[in-house]
Design brief:
The protein has 445 residues and is of the alpha+beta class. The protein contains five helices and 29 strands. A five-stranded antiparallel sheet has the order 2-26-25-24-23, with no helix packed on it. Strands 10, 11, 12, 13 and 14 form a five-stranded mixed sheet that branches. Strands 5-4-3-29 form a four-stranded antiparallel sheet. The longest helix is centred in the N-terminal third of the chain and has 35 residues. It is globular.
Length: 445
């Protein structure tokens, strides 16, 4: 084309270019608005991505790696220094998401077992469970959070679906469509506290500057017979205590503070016990763990007053526990993935003094016999001073001496020589011995 022809058509070309810019700019602007407000096509795109991820890696994400040819299930390195008592271990039992709950000795011998299957406990999925959270096909759902009650029954969660109670023979005593998840705690006051959820898929959420989809985490007080006695929303506790800033840490925009999705990630609930001396807490006070804002706090369930809060001493943590002398022990995942320098990938156990706010590392996961799990993970401080660590993503439970020496290790080896996640390991009290579980078995015959 000649320069004269180009000049003649220049206004048309400029118009076309301007039109392209306007359309592109409008599309970009709509894309930003759609993402912020979860408008079309964002929900469809999110669902497609989730389904593709599930197809590409359906449930092997609950497996870790192949076991070494000489790997054994249980091994004691310092048998004389291992804490006494049987173990309750919960883990993935096969390819898929089905879980086992086993009572074992330190040699890995199974004395009692439950295998709760989602489709057997809930043959028909309740309409109250949101479509997004429902298990796909026959994949099922793993357990996350469990308590063994004095009569030998268990109360557990199918993750983000249901809290249920099952007797020693595997019979379901009751079940709740409460979207229970992560944690169940049996208080010495004779009630259960479970982490639950109010999931809002679309529309108003009931919380200012919180948009759908929203996972509003709650605590449910549940009787031993399965009656929900009370429910408390975590967002309400933070607002009432003038800690509104913690609600919006997932937002880094300047133009608005709207947040959506899993803003806090409640992953534990614990109750301060009767008879334990304290300058800070009272029996019945509740401690919760909020992973996504790196925060632990303790509050009075009657007034909702927060008595203690710690933010930033741990990173993507789990499982805070009350210790004597107003100390709180926390499983600090210290998830620095993908970076490996200069701090190596290693989780740890951190103690926080509730009177002063000071923290210290009680057990480091660094080294050849260490531990690291980016998600999940629990721990137990044992009567002999040892620490039992559940390194979930590694599929292991490990008992360490107070100086960090490894005394004992369990590995969840499943079919095909694979290692499945260990969701929880716990040393049981002396009265729950081999005779106790042998007696339970007689009830099932």
């Amino acid at each position: 084309m000649s320069s004269r022809g180009f000049s003649k058509n220049l206004p048309f070309y400029l118009f076309c270019a301007s039109l392209v810019l306007v359309i592109s700019g409008s599309a970009f602007s709509y894309g930003v608005i759609a993402h912020r407000n979860n408008l079309f096509p964002i929900p469809t795109a999110k669902k497609l991505v989730a389904e593709v991820r599930e197809l590409l890696n359906p449930s092997d994400r609950l497996l870790t790696r192949e076991a070494a040819p000489d790997q054994v299930v249980a091994e004691a390195f310092l048998p004389d220094q291992v804490a006494p008592g049987l173990l309750m271990v919960m883990g993935i039992r096969q390819r898929g998401r089905d879980s086992f709950v086993r009572i074992m000795d330190r040699d890995g011998r199974i004395l009692h077992e439950w295998v709760p299957i989602w489709s057997e406990v809930w043959p028909e999925v309740p309409d109250s469970i949101p479509e997004k959270l429902r298990p796909r096909g026959d994949v099922g759902m793993y357990l996350h959070g469990i308590e063994l009650l004095p009569d030998g029954s268990i109360v557990a969660n199918f993750e983000h679906l249901s809290t249920f109670r099952m007797d020693a023979c595997g019979e379901v005593l009751w079940k709740l469509d409460n979207l229970g998840h992560h944690a169940v705690h049996y208080s010495d006051q004779g009630v259960l506290w479970a982490a639950a959820e109010r999931y809002v898929a679309r529309g108003p959420t009931g919380h200012q500057n919180h948009g759908a989809p929203l996972r509003s985490w709650t605590l449910q007080k549940i009787s031993e017979t399965g009656e929900v006695l009370r429910e408390i929303e975590i967002i309400d506790i933070l607002r009432q205590n003038d800690l509104e800033g913690l609600l919006f840490l997932s937002n880094i925009r300047n133009s608005d503070t709207l947040v959506t999705g899993d803003t806090l990630h409640l992953n534990d609930v614990d109750v301060f016990p009767v008879g334990q001396p304290s300058e800070v807490f009272a029996p019945g006070d509740i401690m919760v763990s909020l992973r996504n804002i790196n925060t632990v706090f303790v509050f009075d369930p009657e007034t909702l007053e927060i008595k203690f809060i710690s933010t930033g001493h741990v990173l993507r943590h789990h499982d805070p526990d009350f210790l004597p002398n107003d100390v709180i022990s926390v499983f600090d995942n210290r998830n620095l993935v993908p970076s490996t320098e200069p701090i190596p990938r290693a989780s740890r156990i951190v103690e926080i003094d509730a009177r002063t706010g000071a923290s210290r590392v009680a057990l480091s996961g660094e080294g050849e016999d260490g531990f690291f799990t980016a998600i999940m993970g629990v721990h137990q401080r044992l009567d002999n001073g040892n620490i039992l660590v559940t390194s979930s993503a590694e599929g292991r439970a490990l008992e360490y001496l107070p100086d960090g020496t490894l005394a004992w290790r369990y590995t969840n080896i499943i079919e095909g020589g694979l290692i499945g996640r260990v969701l929880m390991a716990k040393v049981l009290p002396p009265e729950m011995d081999e005779a106790f579980f042998a007696s339970l078995k007689t009830q099932c015959q």
